[in-house]
Predict the structure.
Amino acid sequence: MNIFKYLIIIFLSTVLVSCGSNTGRKKKDFKIKTNAVKGNIPNNETLKLTLVNKKNHDIESVQYTIDGKEVEAEHDLKHNKLGKHTIEATVNFNGETQIITSSLTILNHELPEVYTYKIINEYPHDITSYTQGLEFFNDTLYESTGQYKESKLRKIDYKTGQVLKNVDLANEYFGEGLTIFNNKIYQLTWQKGTGFVYDINTLEKLSSFRYGKSKEGWGLCHNGNVIYKSDGTEKIWLLNPETLVEEEFIQVYTNKGKIVGINEMEWIDGKIYANRYQKDGVAIINPQNGAVIGVVDFSPLKKLVTQHEGLDVLNGIAYNPKSKTIFVTGKRWDKLFEVEIVEN
């Protein structure tokens, strides 16, 4: 099976994007023309912008921007984030000014690498846990679980599966991802627009916070300076760690289109490793531009756990700095796998 077909079947199933051109109610005298194909362009190309002057006006000046940032008529895309963007041209002519807009989608210029894995160890995992978030701190595993009336925050001895501390969420909350930052645990809930902050040692709830521009909470991770939050779409939001305000976002894209359903996440060696909902694989994402640079196929793991009616998909990825290894599990899986990523 060739790599492209493999990616489509196993994980990516990208959502192809075709962008329209000019927007606005009033008919404009100008139009932005680009070298993008059907609105799409890879990030290793130079974007070329030209202005179509429909009525042959005497143009005094043209200023181009992408998402509000000024660019030249020929713009190297290698430092731009992937995804949908708005091009704007401010045209001054005959004492008048018109603002013209056009859509652009920047794609990654190459296929993701394909990886597999080697199992190092297997550990017990609570078969009733609907795993949503997983993270290590001081060689101890912390887990967030979901489902209404079942959601929990747990501190676990990962080698034995013993629950060291447990906090039940109120029945109206559906627990989602978590991350540990500055000796505090941050836990998301799904559709209530609310997250919780806990003391790392006692699991005492310290405060709560509201989501800003995203509607749902899915996964969390951090790089030591910024907290990253997924919301079930192709967007990963960057949160200010002090205020938890969603200040900006990246969009997760391949060379073919966007990847939606970004779920549980982990920061590993400068990259974001992310589960994708209902897919038994993990995407390796460049946090600078949102490019999927690798895919790990974990689908065989599901056959190695106890098969039962409530068994669900892979979800939960954590990096243990002490062992320098990755741990993965799934929703209602009775095993936690310690793995090593292997290049095909």
Q: What stands out?
A: The chain has two domains: 15-107, 113-343. Helices lie at 3-10.
